[in-house]
Amino acid sequence: AIIAQNMISGADTFTLLAIPFFILAGELMNSGGLSRRIIDFAIACVGHIRGGLGIVAIMAAIIMASISGSAAADTAALAAILIPMMAKAGYNVPRSAGLIASGGIIAPVIPPSMAFIVFGVAANVSITQLFMAGIVPGLLMGLSLVATWLFVVRKDNITPLPKTTAKERVTATARAGWALGMPVIILGGIKAG
Predict the structure, then answer these.
(1) Neighbours of 76 (CB within 10 A)
(2) Does the model's pTM come out above 0.90?
(3) Which helix (H) or strand (E) holds 189?
(4) What is the residue-level pLDDT of the chain in tens, covering all 193 positions?
(5) What are the φ/ψ torsions at residue 110 (nearest 5 degrees)?
(6) Nearest alpha-carbon partner for 37 in 172, 167, 190
(7) What are phi and psi of 50, to 5 degrees?
């Protein structure tokens, strides 16, 4: 009876409620079309660069990681949309899948990370400080992926997407506004208590 009681009391913490809510946020994002809006925003920003769809995948992985914190959900959503686009544009499909999988690894580092929540509860460490400490390493992971991707695709014969106009960029940014604002809302809410 003592073992069962200790197991239940160990998991009986208010902070762990954040995990199902972040999963819910990720599912709502995917079903509501926010994933597609994030990808359209990234295409408007960097799609015209040589190897731009790879940079789009990394950029979208960073933005989606800052919303849901779930690596598997983010990677699945990106792969479903971007792999066919990349194959159609002439990218190497296994390399593209590897890039999207590598981008998914950013999710456990960028807040709101479910791993940080579990670690914070188990080790009695401030989750807010863990979240703040994960921002820079997560962004550096994304930048290193971009640099590696640009090095790898430099010899490939890939036609970049046409450059978007300023009006199209503004429209894509406006459509992705809620998705881009969610990390600010989440982190601002956590920092504000």
Answers:
(1) 15
(2) no
(3) helix 177-191
(4) 777 777 676 666 666 777 777 777 767 776 777 778 888 888 888 888 888 889 989 988 888 888 777 788 788 888 888 899 888 888 889 999 999 999 988 888 988 788 888 888 888 888 888 888 888 999 999 999 999 999 998 888 787 788 888 898 899 888 888 777 777 777 777 677 6
(5) -80, 135
(6) 172
(7) -60, 125
